[in-house]
Amino acid sequence: MSDTGSESESSTSRAVDGPIETVIQNGINGHAQREYRVEIVKDMAIENMKQKMHHIVNRMSKDVEKEMDLAVEDLFTEMKQIHRKNYELPQLFNDKVTNGTSQPKRVRADGKLPDKSFSPRNSLLTDLLEAKHIKTLHHIFIAMLIILFLNTMVHDFVDTGSINLGLRPITAGFGRFHLAMVLWCCMQTSTFLVYPCFQLWATTHKRLTANSIARKSWDWAGVFTFFIYQWVFMIASLAGLLWADLQPASAVAYLMEMTRFLMKSHAFIRSNAPKVLTNDVNSASFPPGIHRALPSFSTYVYFLFVPTLVYRDEYPRTRQIRWFVVARHCLEVIAVVFYISFILERYLTPMFENFGKAAISPGTFVLTIFSSMLPGTLFLLVFFYSSLHASMNIAAELTCFADRMFYRDWWNESTFAGYIRSWNLVVHDWLYTYVYKDFMEYFFCYCRPVAMVAVITVSAVFHEIILSFTFRFFYPVMFVQFEFLGLMLMLVTKRMGRDVGNLVLWFSLAVGNGILASLYYMEYFARRNCPDVGNSILDYVVPVSWSCNGITRVSNWTITAPWNLP
């Protein structure tokens, strides 16, 4: 009985416990499933968050990378600026900088001289004027010029009751400037036409059979045509100047532009013609049928306006135009023009305006030369600053041209050869690239003295053309100074010490500018004051100041030194 009861109880308990356990087990399983689903949702949310964070991190990393690239680029730009400044500022401590074309002209592995290299760099004075000592000297120089100007004005007001600002050379010198601008536009249009003519020649050359008589004849015809064009361009420009009867200042600006156009067109043709001629023979670099691309018209136009005379397809560029720098240099150019006018009006014109009216003694003639040295040296300094620093930097800013090494430290040179190479790097680079190198490699077989004489002769001829047509008479003072005295000074100063050579150089510059200013001024006023001056070629060549009331032993009038003028 008891066993049966026990079994019944156990069966009853099992019967009761079975559904309960099932319920409990189901509850446990449901709770686990809910927790599992929660875990899945959490995992999905975490994974989604990870993806979003990954996307955010990627986006932030790209932004940070972009900003870092810009920061690194700016850093390297600043470092380059510091490097250039540190590279140039050793000039303050008599260290010599060698870059650009001022490096020794060593022959390359292919037997040719090195080419001109362009790199982003400031003008030397731009960097030097950041040193406070040089900036102070610059301020002292400006203050002395202002004091000199005010001193003359006060003397005028006290003695005469009026003030002469010395503006007459500006108003008279820039006469007919509007005609000069019209002629300049004609020269510019003619220079633009060089490009399509060159493209026509290059296209026709490519179409003709290689090594054929027709192609060779076409090539020689192109060379001859460009040679004739340059001569016609120069003769027509000079004829236009004589027709317009441009005054001296307008004539100087016009003739300098004429020379610039000639040098630019020559540089473009000389640099690109070999690209056309070597397409057929340079098969290693250019497969058959592939021709080297010629520059676009925009590239040619850009070259016409950048402040360099050496052609390249690309130049180092700046990011933007700094209009404040442009405005500052424009004000400097205007100030220099007024100061040059002041020097001419108050210090040179009073000494020479009577030439041709009465005979002068040899002593008076020598006194005029020495009295012209100080104004001539001042003229040299301010003209250099205006033309080779301020004006060139204006053109460089407007065209975003980064290489602004337009001159070197010519004032520190101890030899005349170093002075010529450092004074005007823009012209020197053109002479080196298209005259010196060509003469050395194709004509004189690396005979350096002959090539150097050729370079000096070309430079002297163009300087003399500018002066002769500016003043309307041929008086080859500068040609003699370049061709004979310059070569003599090269030999004399070559073996001198640094200090002695620099002293001799500065003394030579002062004397040379005094002679140049006095002789040209004498001839200019003698032709205005002498009534018998004709218009023949002989009258144009023979100096009037030698025959019309020239140098005698007795003089009826005296001359006043510039420092004794009121």
| Secondary-structure-derived class | mainly alpha
Order of helices and strands: HHHHHHHHHHHHHHHHHH
First-last Cα distance: 157 Å
Low-confidence stretches: 4-17, 82-105, 281-291, 553-566
Describe the overall structure:
The chain starts with a helix and ends in a 25-residue tail after the last helix. Helices cover 71% and strands 0% of the residues. By secondary structure, the chain is mainly α. It has helices at residues 2-88, 124-128, 132-160, 168-173, 177-192, 194-207, 213-244, 248-277, 297-305, 323-352, 362-371, 373-399, 416-423, 425-443, 448-471, 477-494, 498-529, 537-541. The longest helix has 87 residues, at 2-88. The protein is extended, with a radius of gyration of 39 Å. It contains 18 helices and no strands. Helix 12 packs across helix 17 (498-529).
